[in-house]
Write a structure and sequence with these properties.
Elements: H1 5-10, H2 12-15, H3 21-29, E1 32-36, H4 42-52, E2 56-60, H5 85-96, E3 101-105, H6 114-118, E4 123-126, H7 131-144, E5 148-154, E6 157-163, H8 172-175, H9 188-191, H10 195-214, E7 223-228, E8 233-238, H11 257-265
Parallel strand pairs: 1-2, 1-4, 2-3, 4-5
Antiparallel strand pairs: 5-6, 6-7, 7-8
Helix pairs in contact: 4-5, 4-10
């Protein structure tokens, strides 16, 4: 690959880093990432991935931009209210990085389409705000052998982890075997969220994603980072593989998302999933 003068200038601060250099920057330009949810987490994650030079980005979100989103979902502006979030975020990505190839998926993820949507990406970032989506994305990513960087935020608390498919690494279900009852876990729309913290967690998510793509430094593959913005505590909790895990254990029962997901995560109804963090 021949560098253009514009690329040398644009990525010069990365290239100066010995841990990245021109070799690492070429990796980013040749890499791809799928971001599930173009909301409070996905917005900063997408903008930083695009600015860093990731060559291809996919954006999944079926929601429309609402006025109440704008305190934290910084990929969108007041003029975007009413537009689909995936399409609006794609426009924001192009404004930062015109050379980035962007694929917008303005649709709901379902067990029937998730494998097709994930196919061909080097990495998945989950910024959704409900457990059915999280389990669907986590299961599908693991089964497809695609690394996953998962972030969550509500009120003044945030959480970040990485899942690297493979023997000896814990999957998402090792951390949380099944979704809690919906009435026990409020969404941001119910409990609120401190806008800048969504930006902090989305930026941390992008940082971890770039490290995965570059093969750089220590990753949160065996740990969960928990952030409390009120007290500014950053705690790291150890995660271990669960031998009895339904997805990655010694006798797994989950082999195909389309066959198992609705029964395991959405008893009594179809999984039609939103992405609104």
């Amino acid at each position: 690959m021949q560098w253009t003068e514009a690329q040398i200038q644009r990525f010069s601060r990365h290239i100066l880093l010995p841990e990245v250099s021109g070799v690492g920057q070429r990796k980013l330009l040749a890499s791809s990432a799928l971001v599930v949810g173009a909301g409070g987490l996905g917005s900063p994650a997408l903008l930083y991935l695009a600015a860093a030079g990731v060559g291809r980005l996919g954006i999944v979100d079926s929601d429309a931009v609402e006025l109440s989103n704008l305190n934290r979902q910084i990929a969108h502006t007041a003029k975007d209210v009413g537009r689909n979030k995936a399409l609006s975020a794609a426009e924001a990505v192009h404004a930062i990085s015109p050379d980035c190839a962007v694929w917008a998926f303005p649709e709901r993820l379902r067990a029937e389409n998730v494998r097709d949507v994930l196919r061909g990406y080097d990495l998945v970032l989950d910024g959704s705000d409900n457990f059915p989506t999280r389990f669907l994305v986590a299961d599908a990513s693991w089964l497809a052998g695609i690394p996953l960087v998962s972030a969550a935020v509500v009120q003044f608390s945030g959480q970040l982890m990485t899942v690297l498919p493979g023997k000896g690494n814990p999957c998402y279900r090792c951390f949380l075997p099944e979704a809690p009852p919906p009435e026990t876990v409020p969404t941001c729309a119910q409990a609120g969220v401190f806008g800048p913290l969504a930006g902090v967690m989305g930026t941390l998510q992008a940082t971890e994603a770039l490290k995965v793509l570059l093969g750089l430094g220590g990753l949160l593959a065996h740990a969960t980072l928990v952030v409390d913005a009120l007290d500014w505590t950053f705690l790291t909790a150890r995660r271990e593989p669960d031998p009895a895990c339904a997805l990655c254990g010694s006798e797994p029962t989950i082999h195909d998302v389309s066959e198992t997901h609705e029964a395991l995560c959405c008893p009594g109804g179809r999984c039609e999933l939103e992405h609104t963090t």
